[in-house]
Amino acid sequence: MTNLTQYGWNDHWDKEWSKEDRGLHRPGRITADFGQKFKVCTEEGEAWGEMSGKMKHGLQSGAPYPAVGDWVEFQMLEGEDRGVIHGILDRKTNISRQKAGAKSAQEQLIAANVDVLFLVTSLNDDYNPRRMERYLIMAWNSGVNPVILLSKADLCDDADIKAAEMELIAPGVPVHVVSALEDRGKEAVTGYLREGVTVALTGSSGCGKSTIVNWLAETSAQRTQGIREDDSRGRHTTTHRQLFLLPQGGLMVDTPGMRELQLYDDDGGGWEQAFADIEAIGRSCRFADCRHEREAGCAVRAAVESGELDAKRLQNYRKTQRELEFQMKKEARGQRKMNRTDRSGKDPVRRKSSYWNQRLHDE
């Protein structure tokens, strides 16, 4: 028998479960996603699961696609070690990005019901504060608590200086310097791990996520690879999303590395939170709608000129703002096109969920 409280089941999920008559279905949590098949953990243990026909049909009208971390209604097939997923309980949080290569705004779900998100970047030539600003936008939008991990500290002579730089761009966000090779920073990281708490790791390919999982799990749960020496970029090691139960308590989701993070939306106000310092300075601008470009009396540009604000941070502020505005326009154009097609009656549109095409592998 499996104790589901170890996997995050609590009073909140008890209440969600009791809202409907679930019949013979039992609660389960998705621990691995292999496309059309999933690993589901129930009180009886782990089993393979597939979506019911009704659930697959519902995807076409906007129902969510199952993701690692989801709590689901599960039915074991009699005499078999597999079962059927009949539904998904409402998510508390979901970590998303814009689907790579999509012509219209499409959400790609990374993980669901995560409490803490470790944003990992390695202290080698791949270190990039501007990329971290993008990850922070994604984290704040998802509703989870971000924590920055600066990995591979054994490869860096000025780790503390880089940590201070990260603290400047992420006010209030914990920053930890870690090294699995030197066993550095482990106590600080394990402080976030306790029974029922779900932690996810995200970062670029080769930043050391799988190594961190193995380090914390004290086992070779995930395969690891080296990085290219010419640019410190990694090859894909993790090829699917998977949730691990850690020996010290807590759960960890390892995700495939991303060579590029495209932002999806800003419903959670993540952009403003990620650039809270610039937003605060901007309240002193002469004009309330100042874009901090060429307007007279711009306090933000004055802060750059005085050295109070990094010019590259302001540049990324503008870049990500334009990107999110463009995504909103793409989404609006796609919706208008869908509505026109629906009215014509000639080419009925199947309303696919933003999760329907998320099977595309991470870049």
Automatic annotation (TrEMBL):
Which EC number(s) does the record attach to this protein? Answer: 3.6.1.-
Sorted alphabetically, the keyword list is: Cytoplasm, GTP-binding, Hydrolase, Metal-binding, Nucleotide-binding, Ribosome biogenesis, RNA-binding, rRNA-binding, Zinc
Specify where the region named Disordered lies, as residue ranges. 324-363
Query: What protein family does this chain belong to?
Result: Belongs to the TRAFAC class YlqF/YawG GTPase family. RsgA subfamily.
What NCBIfam families does the database record attribute to this sequence? ribosome small subunit-dependent GTPase A (TIGR00157)
| Annotated cofactor note | Binds 1 zinc ion per subunit.
> What's this chain's function?
One of several proteins that assist in the late maturation steps of the functional core of the 30S ribosomal subunit. Helps release RbfA from mature subunits. May play a role in the assembly of ribosomal proteins into the subunit. Circularly permuted GTPase that catalyzes slow GTP hydrolysis, GTPase activity is stimulated by the 30S ribosomal subunit.
Q: Identify the residues that bind Zn(2+).
A: 285, 290, 292, 298
Subunit structure of this entry? Monomer. Associates with 30S ribosomal subunit, binds 16S rRNA.
Residues engaged in binding GTP? 151-154, 203-211
Q: What is this protein called?
A: Small ribosomal subunit biogenesis GTPase RsgA
Q: Where is the EngC GTPase domain?
A: 112-259
Keyword Hydrolase assigned: yes
Localization per record: Cytoplasm
Q: Which cofactor does it need?
A: Zn(2+)
Q: Where is the composition biased (Basic and acidic residues)?
A: 324-350
The answer, when asked if Protein biosynthesis is one of the entry's keywords, is: no
User: Which Pfam families does the entry mention?
Assistant: RsgA_GTPase
Extract the InterPro entries matched here.
G_CP_dom, NA-bd_OB-fold, P-loop_NTPase, Ribosome_biogen_GTPase_RsgA, RsgA_GTPase_dom
Task: Report the top EC class in one word.
Answer: hydrolase
**Residue ranges annotated for the CP-type G domain, each copy included:** 103-261
